[in-house]
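Following up on my earlier thread - several people asked me to post the actual chain instead of describing it. Fair enough. Here it is, all 93 residues.
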Amino acid sequence: MSMSMATEVLGMPAPGSRRAPDFDSRNLEELKEFLEEFEELAEKFGLTTREKAKIVVKYMDKKTKQFWKRLEGYRDDYVKLKRKIIGDYCYEH
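Reply from S.P.:
Thanks for posting it. Predicted structure:
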């Protein structure tokens, strides 16, 4: 089963769909809004912290997805991953 299929099984909107959260990595002001929107949907569909840590990257462009997959917490702990994402973006920008 592909991750996009798993996303649908877990109830989350398919990436690129009208209801899917969207983040443009060229516009960092959108990061906080994207994370809030993703978290609201994830809570609505009952995702665990581990499931959130795996699925959040599905809503990214290829370059951002590759970067986020290398961060601590990816696939294991959304709270750690979110902290690293915010920390890395604030540090770099």
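Residues 49-93 form one domain. That should answer part of your original question.
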